[in-house]
DNA sequence: TTGAAAGCGATACCAC
DNA sequence: GTGGTATCGCTTTCAA
């Protein structure tokens, strides 16, 4: 900030008015106090509408307007107030559905006059907690998390310090301020039923979190449903992105014993399967049926359009932001706000009956 | 923060050691000073390796490690230090290419130990400066901007206060710390040449910023190139997203006098055109040739694969972050770092010769 | 309801 | 090189 200082010194030698537009001297609360003839404390209260007479409040607001006063978020934060910044911690920004979620959450936060400090675990569950802590250190007012890692003790500690709202999976053992839960179990079951109903028996599930959280709903559900439906179902861990899944998919499908259907626990992964199929000259759904998870806006534009389980980002974002706002406003631990979202399977042309194969 | 206080009071009655893991009392610089027998000032300097003897520095670092000291970013910011937070201001998070850019920038920043405060102008140029100012108020160390609005005086003022790096278009009249410039002019020219070479004469350019910044390179280039190539070329403003462009595209194409080719200044817009074509039963490129801008990873997966002008997000992100890091480290105005990225046209199946029409 | 003053946790200036 | 200390701008007891 040396640069800043130098400019100030220069400016002090000239007419103060010429400062305007050069370096904008932020109006401080003290100046507002002086201007209104009140004390800084009174002004502070007035601005927040706390324990003030209506008359004073109006007077202060007018003065603030006139002088272009805006509270300094940093000073406010240091003094124990709110930062108006929310941490948004996602499992993988490389995933398109997640990107859409970020947009949606961002949008909701803007409406609530909040900013988003975005952190990306980049598919590495181990990085998740570290990033969360970093966000806490930045004094965010709250945390929106799309968990990919297992619930660890660290989360409980963090949830005790500030409001945490999860989207998607839960953080078992943690009592967050809110959770928007996707019923992944049911989602997987529905998808497998759909494939099973089409006649598929050999199915591979491509999942992005299998090694690190063996109890994650989706995988357990896959195993259970598969057993119930009498399917030969294998769950394979997979990178959480188009580019990451393509090579894996290519390897998986370049094999006469390949599955007749692939259920991808993210549309991004499904896109990788599309790419692999193009590479291998396999047709969808003729050679392989493909289903996704999340239903990204682009999925319906692919050829063939991708069958996918809808997880509405707008709804999730709105709900999560609302939960978080409430929790921040409550300023203390409350009962966990909870919303369970039901999966809706959007059946499109990427899933059809399996073609009989020789061998 | 009442919750915090209450817990503290409770805890004070019990053994302080039991505090660990319940509420972590941040170690302050003063405690570190006390512990090491130094003054807060000395510790502050030592931690930043400024004007300290090696011995002291080591001693302080060890103590910091031991007590788990981490500087409070808020306090640091208020005192004029760095926040390690960078503002990332994008024109529209609804645009998929932009989403990818956010991912890439985010990733680069993580490598540089920086966090990203993401702001989305949501396609509204007017919102851009307001958001930028908000980021400045949050004391970000620097700003990465993907400009959509016209360069206004406000930008010059901001650029004087902190390092600003632009990606994509420039901010004329502003001397930013760095700029990663896409040669949109050439990009548009190449695309139009390609379409012209295929035999198209009636072309519509769908652009996302036409009303607000009439001097934007891309549009001017479109007009110039079109004139040079003898094209009947119309530039139409369009929402910066799939969902936004679809209705417009539908309207545009549901007309016998429709263009034979559409050049979209963003792949997201092109996706909307695809959707509109599907809706109207038009074939690509048979009925309409479509070209995009940006080359999103999904574009090659569409049917037909989308012809697009490649703007590499990884490169842009790396370059921008590098510029910004340098500028932040320099801590003062330097010459503008500049990188001009050349467009590469990826020709795919979405563009072909026009089909002769009756009428 | 309002005012005075003590922080919040760093940084940076000025002596020594 | 190190130590005191004012400062950043706001919040929040505590008194009046």
What does this entry look like structurally?
The structure is a homodimer of 359-residue chains. Chain A is of the alpha/beta class. Chain A folds into 3 domains: 16-71, Orthogonal Bundle (434 Repressor (Amino-terminal Domain)); 85-183 and 313-343, Response regulator (Rossmann fold), CATH 3.40.50; 184-310, Response regulator (Rossmann fold). Chain A has 13 helices and 12 strands. Chain A has helices at 2-13, 29-36, 40-47, 54-67, 73-78, 96-111, 125-137, 153-161, 184-198, 217-229, 242-253, 267-280, 313-330, and strands spanning 85-90, 115-120, 142-145, 164-168, 178-182, 202-207, 232-237, 261-264, 289-294, 307-310, 337-341, 344-346. In chain A, the strands form 2 sheets. A 6-stranded parallel beta sheet of chain A has the order 2-1-3-4-5-11, sandwiched between helices. Chain A has a 6-stranded mixed beta sheet with strand order 7-6-8-9-10-12, sandwiched between helices. In chain A, helix 2 (29-36) packs across helix 3. Mean pLDDT of chain A is 88; it is low at 1-22. Chains A and B meet through helix 1, helix 5, helix 6, strand 2 and helix 7 of A and helix 1, helix 5, helix 6, strand 2 and helix 7 of B. Strand 2 of chain A pairs antiparallel with strand 2 (115-120) of chain B. Chain B binds a DNA duplex (16 and 16 nucleotides) through helix 3 and helix 5.
**Low-pLDDT segments, ≥5 res of chain A:** 1-22
Assign the CATH class of the largest domain in chain A: Alpha Beta
Strand order of the largest sheet of chain A: 2-1-3-4-5-11
Structural class by secondary-structure content of chain A: alpha/beta
Helix content of chain A: 40-55%
Quaternary organization:
homodimer
Order of helices and strands of chain A: HHHHHEHEHEHEEHEHEHEHEEHEE
Tally the structural domains of chain A.
Answer: 3
């Amino acid at each position: 900030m040396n640069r800043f200082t130098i400019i100030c010194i220069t400016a002090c030698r000239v007419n103060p008015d010429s400062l305007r537009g050069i370096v904008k001297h932020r109006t401080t609360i003290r100046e507002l106090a002086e201007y209104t003839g009140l004390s800084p404390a009174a002004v502070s209260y007035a601005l927040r509408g706390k324990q003030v007479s209506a008359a004073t409040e109006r007077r202060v607001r007018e003065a603030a307007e006139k002088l272009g006063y805006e509270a300094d978020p940093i000073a406010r934060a240091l003094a124990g107030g709110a930062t108006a910044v929310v941490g948004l911690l996602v499992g993988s920004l490389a995933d398109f559905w997640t990107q859409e979620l970020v947009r949606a959450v961002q949008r909701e936060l803007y409406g609530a006059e909040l900013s988003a400090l975005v952190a990306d675990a980049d598919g590495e569950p181990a990085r998740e907690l570290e990033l969360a802590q970093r966000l806490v250190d930045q004094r965010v007012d709250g945390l929106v998390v799309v968990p990919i890692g297992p619930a660890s003790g660290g989360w409980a500690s963090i949830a005790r310090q500030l409001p945490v709202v999860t989207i998607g999976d839960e953080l078992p053992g943690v009592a967050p301020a809110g959770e928007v839960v996707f019923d992944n179990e049911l989602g997987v079951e529905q998808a497998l039923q759909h494939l099973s109903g089409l006649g598929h028996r050999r199915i591979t599930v491509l999942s992005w979190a299998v090694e690190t959280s063996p109890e994650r709903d989706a995988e357990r559900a896959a195993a259970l449903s598969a057993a119930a439906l009498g399917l030969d179902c294998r769950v394979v861990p997979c990178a959480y992105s188009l580019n990451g899944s393509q090579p894996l998919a290519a390897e998986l499908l370049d094999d006469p014993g390949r599955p007749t259907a692939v259920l991808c626990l993210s549309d991004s992964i499904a896109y990788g399967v599309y790419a692999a199929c193009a590479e291998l000259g396999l047709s969808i759904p003729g050679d392989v049926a493909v289903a996704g998870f999340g239903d990204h806006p682009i999925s319906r534009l692919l050829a063939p359009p991708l069958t996918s389980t809808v997880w509405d980002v707008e709804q999730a974002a709105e709900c999560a932001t609302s939960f978080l706002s409430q929790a921040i406003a409550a300023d203390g631990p409350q009962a966990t706000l909870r919303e369970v979202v039901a999966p809706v399977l959007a059946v499109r042309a990427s899933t059809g009956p399996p073609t009989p194969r020789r061998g």
